[in-house]
Amino acid sequence: MSEYILQLDDISKFFGSVIALSGVTLNLKKGEVHCLLGDNGAGKSTLIKTLAGVHQPDKGRYLVDGKPVTFQSPREALDAGIATVYQDLALVPLMSVARNFFMGREPQKKWLGFIPVMDHDLAGRTAVEKLAEMGIKVRSQDQLIGTMSGGEKQCLAIARAIHFGAKVLILDEPTAALGVKQSVNVLKLIHKARARGISVIFITHNVNHAYPVANSFTLLNRGQSMGTFAKNEICKEAVLDMMAGGAEMKSMMGDLEGVTI
Amino acid sequence: MTNPNTSRLPDERVRRVGAVRSVLARPEFGALAGAVLVFCIFGVAAGNSGMFSMEGIVNWGTVAAYLGVLAVGAALLMIAGEFDLSVGSMIGFSGMMMAIPCLYWGWPVWLSVLFAFSVAVCLGGLNGWLVVKTGLPSFIVTLAFFFILRGLSLALSVLLTGKTIVSSNDDLVLQELIANDPLIGSLFQGHVFKGLFNILAQAGIIAARDDGAALAVGVPKVMGWWLVLTLAGALALARTRFGNWILAVGGDANAAKNVGIPVGRVKISLFVFMAFCATLFAVLQVADAGSAAADRGLQKEFEAIIAAVIGGCLLTGGFGSVIGAALGALIFGVVQIGIGYTSIDNNWYRVFLGGMLLAAVLFNNYIRRRVALGR
Questions:
Q1: Which residues pair with B168 in a beta bridge?
Q2: CA B162 – CA B171 distance, rounded (Å)
Q3: CA angle B194, B197, B202 (to 5 degrees)
Q4: CATH code of residue A244
Q5: B252: Cα within 13 Å, side-chain hemisphere
């Protein structure tokens, strides 16, 4: 048994002549919330897709529970308990809560003893129950996803991943499009997931959202890791400073002062 | 969201959804309302013209049933986000693929029918495979097959038989061959409930001929096929895992892929099913008419799509109903045949259908936005 549930060891990924990731190392401890911070173009998306099995690394090792793995497809990563909630959430607006919750993993029963049909009662009951456990209330199991708010959808997608046995939850900018209260709800949900022993990789560029829930931070800049820090090693301002590229940001702010309208 | 103490209370920001609203949100509502409207109109305009006598019902029921067989396939395909313009050409082609082997190559009828279905299923699979692999819109891929299959039907029938309509070859007559094949004859040719109809005629409930037999011979078998396919399709869509996949694939193919649904396989199998429906149409028609013609099935692709749209299917996929599509086909049959029972000029039939289609699309769009998604 390894102390880490998931490890990327000196990973590089190239797209033609572009170096998307260069020697990135990331260690995710069991039951921690690990924030992946970086500005646009830092390589966050490539890193997530590598973790999720969409891309295969060109260099370096990917270990799950201390054992090296090579995922050929997202399905294989999912089967290993690594669930990714992308920004588009993989929810279908014109389908009900229950149908969405079990999309692709529908519970079945036999009708008249031999016709396999979807067990809508079980699906509906389970979906509503599991959502309630996560503190998400839905009108009915038949409510269409399209009528829910952005925060509710985000929470539903996370709750679905947890229900289907995720050991590692990768959340791609879960708070990016949300208002203040809804963001807090998502942060609460991340907290609940950790309480259940699930390890979370939380991708964001909002330090205010990352800092309260995270145990450690990894900063990415232009495809390279700028290091991993435990929460007690680093303050919020320092994280923000490093993320924006410190000196570069200062000089840009300097330019701003001369701006008049 | 809420703390546990208040989670039992209703959310003050959620309005109660009325019964009327939830009925309105069902995809088949528009088709049902349309069907009622059409029956009312023709009930008034042609109520005592014989349109609603038994043979009148069989008349328009048959037209509806033929289209209904196609509408099941078209609806499921449309809900999965694709449509097939090659259906009409496939009808002509499959009819030929059935008639030529048994008339000219000496094949037994059952083998010819099996051959026609096999060729059609392969072509449907090819259609689907091309759409899935290339990512091109199904409009353009199936438009190509619309021309290819129609051209092939004409060219091959001229090449192999010298004709474009085949009903016999020397002493072989297609109608008799089919009637003499116990399996194919009993599955696709003639009527059921003949005895019941005669009893009803003798009791004076339905019209009888001079010899006492019923004027309407029985229920054409195509109606049975329509019923079976519609029920099977509706059950599959609403109640099975595959049905959930169809809705997901049409609603958001990317989301479906991300949760592990085999998007390509779902789409291809629905193209195959569409080709199966077209061939069933062709076999029933050949068995009934006793001939196959290379120009059969003209415009059927559009009629099938119209029936599906009137039935509440969104052209963009992800929403719709098989029962609705069956009602759409019923509206088609009633209007097309019913207009002949009235004093209205036949040419108004297309105007009426076009208007119906437009009304259905506008209504569906409105329902999806306002009622289903609450915007």
A1: B173
A2: 17
A3: 125
A4: 3.40.50.300
A5: 19
Residue A52 forms part of a structural domain = yes
If one counts every other C-beta atom within 10 angstroms of the C-beta of residue A3, the result is 9
Which DSSP symbol is given to B9? Answer: S
What are A108's strand-pairing partners?
A118
Count of domains observed in chain A? 1
Name which of A61, A131, A66 is nearest A102 in CA terms: A131
Chain B residues whose CB is inside 8 A of the A136 CB are 1
In chain A, which residue's Cα lies nearest the Cα of B2? A135
Q: Which A residues, 171 through 190, put their C-beta within 8 Å of a C-beta on chain B?
A: 185
- What is the C-alpha separation between B88 and B93, in angstroms, rounded? 9
Contact A95 B256 (CB under 8 A): no
Helices (H), chain B: 19-24, 29-46, 54-79, 87-104, 109-134, 138-161, 174-180, 182-188, 194-202, 221-239, 241-251, 253-258, 263-289, 300-310, 322-341, 348-366
What pLDDT tens digit does each residue of chain A (261 aa) get?
578 899 999 999 999 888 889 889 999 999 899 999 887 778 888 898 899 888 899 999 999 998 999 988 888 888 889 998 988 888 998 899 999 999 988 999 998 888 899 999 999 999 999 888 877 888 788 888 888 888 888 889 988 988 888 899 999 988 887 888 888 888 888 988 899 899 999 998 888 888 888 899 888 888 888 888 888 888 887 777 777 665 566 666 677 766 655
Determine whether B317 is exposed, middle or buried from the number of CB atoms within 10 Å of its CB (0-12, 13-18, 19+). buried
B367: DSSP letter:
I
- Give the whole-angstrom CA distance, residue B71 versus residue B229: 10
**Length of chain A as a residue count:** 261
| B1 vs A103, A137, A147: nearest CB | A137
Note the CATH number of domain B52-372. Answer: 1.10.3470
Encode burial over A9-35: b for 16+ CB neighbours within 10 A, e otherwise: bebbbeeeeebbbbebebbbbbbbbbb
* Rounded Cα distance, B336 and B340, in Å: 8
Q: How are beta strands B165-166 and B168-169 bridged, if at all?
A: unpaired
CA–CA min distance A246, chain B (Å): 37
For strands B168-169 and A4-15, give the pairing. Answer: unpaired
Question: What three-state secondary structure class fits B374?
Answer: coil
How long a stretch of residues is chain B?
375
CB atoms within 10 A of CB A149: 14
Closest CA to A32 of A250, A229, A240: A229
Domain ranges of chain B: 52-372
Query: Hey, what long-range contacts does B260-268 have (CB within 8 A, 24 or more apart)?
Result: B260/A74, B260/A75, B260/A78, B260/A104, B260/A105, B261/A103, B261/A104, B263/B132, B264/B132, B264/B133, B266/B80, B266/B242, B267/B80, B267/B81, B267/B82, B267/B128, B267/B131, B267/B132, B268/B125, B268/B128, B268/B129, B268/B132
Q: What is the rounded end-to-end Cα distance, in angstroms, of chain A?
A: 61
CA–CA gap between residue B20 and residue B16 (Å, rounded): 11
| DSSP assigned state of B296 | T
- Domain residue limits at A48: 4-94+144-251
β-pairing verdict for A4-15 and A18-29: antiparallel
Coil, strand, or helix at residue A165?
coil
Residues on chain A touching B248 (C-beta within 8 angstroms): 92, 95, 99, 103-104
